[in-house]
Amino acid sequence: MDSPVVRKWFEQQTRGVLRPSAVLVPIMRRERELTVLLTRRADHLRAHQGQVSFPGGRSEPDDASAAATALREAWEEVGLRPEAVEICGYLDDYPTLTRFIVTPVVGLVDDVPTLRHDPAEVAEVFEVPLRLLMEPGRFERHVLTRDGLQLPFVQVRYEGQKIWGATAAMLRDLISRLEAVTV
Around Cβ 178, how many Cβ atoms within 10 Å? Predict the structure, then answer.
């Protein structure tokens, strides 16, 4: 949202009311490499059907924090036990056109469990090697035209999956932070 025109349009679309939500950005420590766990949303859902996302969702009144929301949702959606996740930090909050403010919670998973997804919410669970996301040029820049405005977004493809929008932006944020500490 670096353009004042896009920012004003976004504020008009959301009417300034954003509902809190959180996603877990699970970094899985596999035997040979680190991967990032993602889901493909079920095709029968009303919103964002078939899109790639992180496990997560709307904050509930009983959730003590964004991390609590992300861990609860990851358990419900993919069977990732909260105690298996070491919270490492947070990425920048991300406002969405669907009127959510999403807090990405980064977690490291050492003891990778057998995952089971809830077919009511998730069609598929898959992992992308972190090293591939760090390859130069991996994130493609695109523009979506909506209401006459040019809205920039990034996209990355992996094994037939198209990761774009908020999820790709959060991945790009993660990668830029990792690159900053590895230089």
Answer: 16
